[in-house]
């Protein structure tokens, strides 16, 4: 194979090329024949794809996936099934690179971003929910999850998932939306999975990209869950091999965090530490954290946000085992009830949605400064992180576990108290 | 340099000899940041003169300069060290021309200076990423050898079938 840099040995060339963003690589196929064949070969090499993803994730800058409508269009914020239909067809799925070098130390009150509209195979009017993992975007046509499309906008690949038998049967006359859905990576099997937990008689099913079929997953018999009360209805936090949701467990009469382990395919439950008016899940310093604000806060003009961290993961052998959350931070008082979305930039900077005008804000934990994040147009969920990758949604190119972490999750054998 | 006199253990000095005969006297702690030299020291032990026939003096000097900076920065156990190293790395690669960069990269690779290889490959990557195809051809003096129509076809394949 022709060498792209005649002066450099092959291994070094590969390191350099694997450090390039996936979209640059796809574009560079057009440089000449040598580049074309070199890049095509690399895109089909699972180890290279894994390396490229590894470097893309290591980058200090982070992209946020959100939907954006031109300013003239009205986008409703309320994520209920009926409200969603009002969202205008001209919205775009956009990756926003928050580019900010100054560490929040200067006096700028605005953070500017670079936006890039992603090309996905469905128009906005054709999908309602979006998830993301390793460059694969998972789009759902409706809240029932009847039509699910996986796509990698960089590779221009998409795949429509087959309907599961179970899903079709359980509909009947009345449809119940699933209580939880999510998309993530199983680092043990090197597989991407979509998980759906149905409402009522709690059943869960998993679609695996490598086997290309649906499979039932066991849940605790007596478990009844209700996610409609959650502020994060249909939001799913995927982090290091597990999906997390917040919802109500009527049997406990309590809000809980439901966690699905992508590798073991088991569910875990962690009760909220206290009653909260608003909650949201984020990743903080390599741990999952829960933001809570209390009922009283709603009545006053200012609010304090508490952040509770999951330090330990679960004992896989015991379905119900958990380690309680610990309180780590209290933010505020903040004016006008901003809603925490996610941390960005090594856990110093918290992105928030302004409670009044739904604009993005960034709160620096160190300097305690609140700044505006300027994005053109009306923006909306999913606000998850986005990374450009060469991970294919077609065919099973097994990615070696060599590079794919670290993500072997920490497990404790700690027993429940 | 005698300024680091606070350390009580006497630091051993190594002589490194480049391909063009230029020699460098370096503290062992600095030189062993390079995997290849670390191996030689561990294997051969007593040897104080190390010959490096694949690296010439100019680039060996640059690699050692980088090692020294990082070794010095790491001795003060400040939290700001990472920041200092990052800032210094940025300066180090800022004005390198393509030719120097390649030679330095090969020297770093030969000497198994993993961190330096990371830094330099990242630098080369930063010269490429985000560029247009035409700019890549210009930067690396490459001519397109596609037949008429072929390039167009590849571009088409890179867009959605229904676009």
Automatic annotation (TrEMBL), chain A:
Domain F-box intervals: 2-51
Pfam family, one: F-box
Highest rank taxon of the organism: Eukaryota
Alphabetical list of SMART domains matching this protein: FBOX (SM00256)
PROSITE patterns in the cross-refs: FBOX (PS50181)
Protein name: F-box domain containing protein
Organism: Trema orientale (Charcoal tree)
TrEMBL record, chain B:
Keyword field: Kinase, Transferase, Ubl conjugation pathway
Pathway the protein contributes to: Protein modification; protein ubiquitination
Short name of one Pfam family: Skp1
Keyword Transport found: no
GO molecular function: kinase activity
SMART domains, A to Z: Skp1
GO terms under biological process: jasmonic acid mediated signaling pathway; protein ubiquitination; ubiquitin-dependent protein catabolic process
SKP1 component dimerisation domain location: 115-161
Keyword set includes Transcription: no
Signal peptide: none
Domain annotation SKP1 component POZ: ranges: 14-72
Quaternary organization: Part of a SCF (SKP1-cullin-F-box) protein ligase complex.
Assigned protein family: Belongs to the SKP1 family.
Reported function: Involved in ubiquitination and subsequent proteasomal degradation of target proteins. Together with CUL1, RBX1 and a F-box protein, it forms a SCF E3 ubiquitin ligase complex. The functional specificity of this complex depends on the type of F-box protein. In the SCF complex, it serves as an adapter that links the F-box protein to CUL1.
Protein name as catalogued: SKP1-like protein
């Amino acid at each position: 194979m022709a060498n792209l840099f005649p002066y450099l040995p092959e291994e070094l060339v590969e390191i350099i090329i694997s450090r390039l963003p996936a979209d640059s690589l796809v574009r560079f196929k057009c440089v000449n024949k040598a580049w074309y064949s070199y890049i095509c070969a690399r895109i089909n090499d699972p180890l290279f794809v894994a390396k490229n993803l590894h470097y893309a994730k290591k980058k200090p800058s982070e992209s946020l996936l959100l939907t954006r409508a031109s300013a003239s269009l009205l986008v409703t914020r309320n994520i209920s099934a009926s409200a969603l239909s009002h969202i205008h067809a001209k919205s775009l799925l956009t990756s926003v690179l928050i580019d900010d070098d100054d560490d929040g130390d200067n006096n700028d009150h605005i953070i500017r971003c670079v936006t890039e509209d992603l090309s996905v195979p469905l128009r906005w009017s054709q999908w309602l929910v979006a998830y993301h993992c390793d460059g694969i975007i998972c789009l759902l046509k409706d809240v029932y999850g009847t039509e699910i499309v996986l796509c990698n906008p960089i590779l221009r690949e998409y795949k429509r998932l087959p309907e599961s038998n179970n899903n079709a049967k359980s509909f009947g006359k009345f449809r119940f939306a699933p209580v939880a859905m999510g998309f993530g990576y199983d680092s043990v099997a090197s597989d991407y999975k979509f998980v759906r937990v149905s409402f009522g008689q709690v059943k869960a099913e998993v679609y695996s990209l490598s086997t290309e079929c649906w499979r039932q997953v066991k849940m605790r018999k007596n478990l009844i869950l209700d996610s409609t009360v959650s502020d994060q209805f249909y939001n799913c936090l995927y982090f290091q091999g597990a999906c997390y949701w917040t919802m109500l467990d009527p049997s406990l009469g309590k809000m809980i965090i439901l966690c699905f382990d992508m590798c073991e395919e088991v569910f875990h439950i962690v009760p909220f530490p206290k009653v909260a008016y608003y909650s949201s899940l984020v990743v903080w310093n390599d741990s999952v954290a829960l933001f809570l604000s209390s009922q009283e806060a709603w009545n006053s003009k200012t609010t304090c946000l508490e952040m509770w961290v999951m330090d330990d993961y679960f004992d896989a052998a015991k379905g119900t085992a958990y380690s309680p959350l610990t309180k780590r931070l209290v933010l505020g008082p903040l004016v006008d009830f901003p809603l925490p979305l996610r941390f960005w930039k090594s856990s110093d900077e918290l992105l928030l949605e302004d409670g009044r005008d739904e604009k993005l804000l960034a709160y620096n934990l160190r300097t305690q400064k609140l700044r505006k994040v300027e994005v053109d147009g009306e923006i909306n969920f999913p606000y998850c992180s986005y990374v450009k990758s060469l991970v294919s949604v077609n065919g099973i190119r097994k990615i070696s576990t060599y590079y794919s972490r670290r993500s072997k999750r920490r497990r404790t054998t700690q027993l429940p108290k | 340099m005698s300024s680091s006199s606070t350390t009580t253990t006497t630091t051993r000095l190594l002589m490194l000899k480049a391909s063009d005969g230029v020699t460098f006297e370096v503290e062992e702690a600095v030189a062993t940041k390079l995997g290849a030299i670390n191996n030689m020291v561990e294997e051969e032990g007593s040897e104080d003169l190390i010959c490096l026939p694949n690296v010439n003096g100019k680039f060996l000097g640059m690699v050692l300069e980088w090692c020294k900076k990082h070794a010095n920065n790491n001795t003060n156990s400040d939290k700001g060290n990472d920041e200092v190293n990052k800032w210094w790395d940025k300066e180090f690669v800022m004005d390198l021309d393509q030719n120097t960069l390649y030679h330095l990269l090969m020297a770093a690779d030969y000497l198994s200076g993993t961190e330096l290889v990371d830094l330099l490959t990242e630098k080369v990557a930063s010269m490429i990423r985000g560029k247009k195809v035409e700019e890549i051809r210009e930067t690396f003096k490459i001519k397109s050898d596609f037949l008429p129509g072929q390039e167009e076809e590849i571009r088409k394949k890179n867009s959605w079938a229904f676009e």
